[in-house]
Design brief:
The complex is a heterotrimer of chains A (291), B (451) and C (177). Chain A is an alpha/beta fold and 291 residues long. Chain A is built from eight helices and eleven strands. Classes of the chains: A alpha/beta (291), B mainly alpha (451), C mainly alpha (177).
Chain lengths: 291, 451, 177
């Protein structure tokens, strides 16, 4: 049997807890409890986009538009790289950094270019930190590596919260706001393609690219994983990715693998193409050849 | 004989503050370590994981290395359960609770390590099933989440039930208890196998992508677990009145010896297989044993860890040495440290060297990282201390429901028990009928001996 | 009588088959060479009015056989293209046009037909958009580049550039502070 005193004490405790929790929930920023993108209703998505555009525009002092362009029908993206033509100038790396709003300090780069010696495809002998007066250096060839957009991606399998998945056009995307930063996908990627924001990324306002996509190049936050998305904000509108446009030798080719007349299909049919680490059976959609 | 019964009310919270100087000193030391770790974690939460030594090519380091090691320690609790309840080995029955509480503290340490390793711990809701989006059954980490929480619950329920039965002076109900024991045994093995699968399922890291990882994890766990348990039991036996039998220690040391043999056998097989063929898979083991391209910071440590384990195994084979408690403590310390270095650091924390595109970086944990790691260990030790502290009066028999008319240990039907179980979670006695509360005379708790 | 008419029939049909066979082959090659390019080319034309070579050369003698011929006068040209000489590409009679290997005249705006005479593999690839850079959109209008828009036709050499800086070495902290 509960005494009157106990009843008053307990109900006072309950009431104060209730008040406290509502105060706290009022302090929690809107969006703390938001759904992952795949579960959002149209209204929630619109509200989220508006909130994001307002936040980014305020932060970078320019008008930022966040798109959510879906994948086009009957499109499967693929990229081909001619290793005989790549001279290792790293123009693609810089173009990607600028186009995709990557952090400048600490420096994040979605594309890694390895300088390899002739005669071996052993990645362990590659050097990512080469520095010469002019490239290509004698006796070397260059191997740019970025997200291979695998058809059976190991990173998608391991994510504990389903923050990363494969889109219908083949691009592996990340819902940055859903990622908990456990870095399991970094360990799972065989190509070291996924990059992590180890601290608050710094992006100067005047270098920020204001045309962003929700799943692509919008500015990320500390503790989130990011990677190449084949410039999803450009390619879904029919444009080439920034790395393809920046390449001065035309080593990179991009297109729709389901279109028989596309350049990438023609290369796949005629050239001796290969993929990196084929024994892993992840079936990358990034092909290489010497031609 | 009267019908009046004596009853002790068990107030858990004041019990935590009863102890001698040694107890308070121990708690203060732990408190200082935890406080400095909390400060370091504040900086990590604010600035991000860049204050650690981890980078993109090796995304996991000290935190996850300790996590994997501690899941093993937690799994080793079954090594006490199996002899105690399946084979009814009485000496180990007494120390069953210590093993269970050690397992519970280890699991809490594991969960802490996972949380501090997350880049966005503020998004912890995302991993809760139904509230967030748990990627079950594809992601091994999702499996691990579920099994670890389940194991924590089991390791709080089972000892609570045993303590309650002790308090009421009766044997645990076989019908209720034995299924839980069987479940705990299976679950204990599964937590460490699932943890091993987190690593061994990755084809991108050849040093982990091997079948022998899961059995090796179990063997090293069953060697390191009893090691710390032997030390913990002796500490408890020395500083409290917990009834400890030396036979328990000897039995545990036998189990430890066998497990250590299998651990070294599998390690040896791993090293042989990779170094004989000298394929690219050998690179990781080569880095640990011989250094690679000038990076050799961990070579000495690796060799020492393996040498210590091997020499301890040889020495443990002699019963005279094994039953010498002073030497046994030394061996246990050696095994614990050796397996921590070889498995926690060498295999897990340094597993991603070289990276998946062949780069070799030297991972050096930073001071904040080490501070936070020590603080989590201190949290685990603190919880273990407090749990044991709460259990001691029941185990030694100071606090017990006593019957003035019936001194035999029968199930009481008419007495009521006022128990505040705010420390021991979960009501284990689901099968028992609820009893009415009555006001009873309260006897003060006995003072424990000063240290 | 029957033997003669049979001979005429066989002769007639045989000739017809052979004719059709060769017609098919040439039709195929005509069709291939006239397949539209998957990309557009810019409307750049070498403007003969700006540089009417034939104004001078119609009166000058043709110096053939000497690979240094003409270089003293055309000092802006640095020449090293395999074992070629000037008149292997430039037409000896009309300097405002070029000449393919098969002695066919092509204009400067179709020079790839001449270059493709030796660089057949690259030419074949270029026609499909495999060789060289493509601008525009992957699913819409694309622009290709002519040979001389990327290569120095007199002294072609592999492109060299100064590389952009390498990423930060991981052994150091990233932060600049």
């Amino acid at each position: 049997m509960i005494t009157r005193r106990e009843f008053i004490e307990k109900s006072a405790l309950g009431a104060s807890l209730l008040t406290l929790s509502s105060l706290i929930s009022g302090c929690i920023p809107e969006g703390f409890f938001k759904n992952p993108l795949q579960k959002m209703s149209k209204e929630e998505l619109n509200r989220t986009i508006q909130r994001m555009e307002a936040t980014y525009s305020r932060k970078f002092s320019k008008e930022v538009t966040v798109k959510t362009t879906p994948a086009q029908q009957d499109v499967l993206f693929g990229m081909v790289l001619n290793l005989s033509k790549c001279i290792g100038c790293r123009r693609c790396v810089q173009a990607c950094i600028k186009e995709n709003n990557q952090s400048r300090d600490p420096q994040i780069a979605w594309i890694d270019v390895l300088e390899m010696k002739h005669g071996s495809m052993d990645l362990e002998k590659g050097d990512r930190y080469y520095q010469h007066e002019s490239v290509p250096a004698e006796g070397c060839f260059y191997l740019p590596i970025q997200c291979q957009q695998c058809q059976d991606p190991p990173c998608v399998k391991v994510c504990p919260v389903k923050a990363t998945w494969k889109e219908p056009d083949g691009v592996i995307v990340i819902d940055y706001d859903w990622c908990i930063g456990c870095r399991y996908c970094l360990a799972a990627c065989p190509y070291n393609a996924r990059k992590y924001n180890w601290s608050n990324p710094s992006l100067p306002a005047k270098e920020m690219n204001p045309q962003v996509h929700y799943l692509g190049n919008r500015p990320r936050d500390k503790g989130e994983v990011e990677k190449c998305t084949f410039c999803i904000h450009r390619t879904r509108e029919g444009k080439y990715p920034a790395c393809v446009e920046a390449c001065p030798t035309g080593a990179r080719k991009f297109g729709n693998l389901l279109d028989r007349e596309s350049v990438v299909r023609k290369i796949l049919a005629e050239k001796n193409i290969f993929v990196l680490k084929p024994e892993l059976n992840v079936y990358p959609r990034f092909y290489y050849y010497f031609g | 004989m009267t019908d009046q019964v004596d009853k002790k009310s068990l107030k858990f919270f004041p019990l935590l503050f009863e102890g001698g100087i040694g107890y308070y000193l121990w708690l203060s030391v732990l408190g200082i370590v935890i406080a400095s770790g909390a400060l370091a974690y504040f900086f990590q939460f604010r600035d991000g994981l860049i204050i650690t030594g981890m980078r993109d090519p090796f995304p996991w380091g000290l935190y996850i290395g300790n996590f994997a090691f501690l899941v093993g320690i937690a799994a080793a609790a079954i090594l006490v359960l199996i002899p105690a309840y399946l084979y009814h080995y009485q000496p180990l029955k007494e120390v069953c609770i210590i093993g269970e509480f050690l397992a519970a503290s280890s699991i809490i340490m594991c969960l802490c390590f996972v949380v501090i390793d997350l880049g966005r711990p503020d998004r912890w809701l995302h991993i809760i099933p139904f509230i967030g989006q748990l990627h079950f059954p594809q992601s091994m980490m999702a499996w691990d989440c579920l099994v670890l929480w389940g194991y924590l619950l089991l390791n709080l329920i089972i000892p609570s039930y045993i303590l309650r039965c002790k308090y009421q002076g009766r044997q645990p109900s076989t019908r209720l208890f034995m299924p839980l024991v069987y479940l705990a045994i299976v679950w204990a093995i599964s937590i460490h196998v699932v943890t091993a699968f987190i690593y061994s399922s990755l084809s991108s890291v050849p040093s982990w992508h091997q079948a022998v990882l899961a059995p090796r994890f179990l063997a090293s766990a069953f060697a390191a677990g009893p090691a710390i348990l032997i030390l913990a039991i002796q500490v408890i036996g020395r500083y409290t009145r917990w009834p400890i039998e030396k036979k328990a220690l000897y039995k545990l040391s036998e189990i430890m010896t066998v497990a250590l043999f299998f651990n070294l056998l599998m390690l040896g097989a791993e090293i042989f297989v990779e170094s004989y063929a000298q394929s690219s898979h050998f690179v990781h083991r080569q880095y640990l044993l011989f250094g690679l391209h000038g990076h050799n910071a961990y070579v000495g440590l690796t060799w020492i860890a393996i040498a210590v384990q091997m020499s301890v195994l040889v020495l443990l084979l002699f019963p005279k040495l094994r039953c010498n408690l002073k030497l046994l403590n030394l061996f246990c310390g050696g095994i614990f440290a050796g397996i921590w270095v070889e498995k926690g650091i060498g295999l897990i924390a340094l597993g991603c060297v070289p990276s998946s595109i062949g780069e070799i970086f030297e991972y050096h944990p930073t001071l904040p990282e080490i501070t936070i790691t020590m603080a989590v260990w201190a949290i685990g030790l603190l919880i273990f201390t407090l749990l044991i502290r709460l259990a001691i009066p029941i185990v030694v028999g100071d606090v017990r429901v006593s019957h003035s008319h019936d001194q035999s240990e029968k199930k009481p039907k008419t007495e009521e028990v006022e128990v505040k179980e705010d420390a021991a979670k979960g009501e284990a006695a689901k099968g028992e009928a609820k009893q009415e509360a009555k006001q009873e005379e309260v006897k003060p708790l006995p003072k424990l001996p000063q240290q | 009588m029957v033997l003669r008419s049979r001979f005429i029939t066989v002769y007639f049909w045989g000739t017809a088959v052979i004719f059709l066979f060769f017609a098919a082959i040439s039709a195929n090659s005509f069709a291939q060479s006239s397949l539209p390019l998957p990309f557009q080319l810019s409307a750049r034309e070498r403007n003969p009015e700006a540089f009417p070579c034939q104004d001078c050369h119609q009166d000058l003698p043709t110096k053939n056989g000497d690979d240094k011929a003409g270089l003293e006068e055309h000092t802006q040209v640095s020449f090293k293209h395999g074992g070629l000489r000037c008149l292997d590409c430039h037409d000896s009679e009309d300097r405002d046009t070029l000449r393919t290997v098969g002695q066919r005249r092509v204009s400067f705006s179709n020079m790839e037909e001449m270059c493709g005479g030796c660089h057949a593999a690259d030419y074949r690839d270029w026609k499909q958009g495999i060789h060289g850079k493509l601008l525009g959109s992957w699913n819409g209008a694309q622009w290709g580049l002519r040979c001389m828009e990327c290569h120095d036709v007199h002294k072609p050499k592999p492109m060299t550039l100064r590389p952009e800086p390498p990423p930060h070495p991981r052994t150091e902290a990233h932060r600049s502070q």
